[in-house]
Amino acid sequence: MKKILVVCLVLGLPLFLLTACADGGDSGDGDNGGGDSITLYSPETPDLTKQLAQKYEEVHGDKVNVHYAGTNVLVNQMMAEKGNPQADVWYGGGGILPFESAVDKEIITSYIPESAEDWEVIENGIKMKHQNGYYTGVELFVLGFSYNTDLVSEEEAPKTWEDLLDPKWEGKIQFPNPAASGTSTLMVLSYMMQYGEEEGWEYFQKLKDQANSIPDSGSAPTKAVAMGEAHVAVGFDFMAYEHQANGETVDFVVPDKTPILSNPMTLVKDGPNPEGGQKFMEFMLSEDAQQILADWYHIPINPDIESKTPLSVDNISNHAVELDIDWVNENYDRIRNEWNSKIK
């Protein structure tokens, strides 16, 4: 089985020398695809995807309809739509894991943007595109803990996944529902790959008992921290920094060992507007799109784009864990589907 270290140690590599360099429902008007319109499925922040769509429309003139839902909800929707696909592009899902799983489901198809054709599949440990072209990385994500700085000091904030089980956090934690959220599925799979399934299910039963809510949305727990409805939440780095930038009392901890992945995009198989979908994927690696991602506190692929996030590869690399991609492909659906029966 192949294992990859899910962090890129150096951004200034040939891989990155690019030549071109949500709370629910559709955010765009018009029908789902057809003609010059492009339909984008994405679990990423609705305002972010709306901004990306607006910039694409400004540059290219084609309409982009954005449909927002949790990653696993979108995957199930694409499965249901296989006979009549409604989406052209799928962007984002908490990293590469749901995209790896989607290959065998035959809901996505191969396309690599021109600016990524010369990338290595794995560059210094991070898988940046599928070996057969089924997805391409757009940015880097770090899974960790947000906390409310009015309720939790920097010193007492959790530093490891085991710290979340401390009795002091009982009724004060939120994390997304792994049956619905790709963010949380990543958390579960990563832990089980390190410690085994038996210990993993025991851990997550205890973590569930610590939580005051387990929402379906990957971003909802961090929002709850910002509102004081939770002290600590599991989520991605940019979620916390977005709230912080809005003046809310939120900060972020990179756990001692945690997943750090590329977050991809892909072309939906037999989508209504494949040419438009390809154009949108090219756009996502352009300076315009990469700058938008950087302004939303994401870590962009293009090293020439300066991001607002305080995180960089240099200060996160020592925290990365290994993920067994073969194991993910074999167990992704089973593990997330077993959540509701295993966790009471």
Automatic annotation (TrEMBL):
Residues 1-22 form the signal peptide. Pfam families: SBP_bac_6. It comes from the Bacteria. Keywords: Signal. This is ABC transporter substrate-binding protein. It comes from Oceanobacillus kimchii.
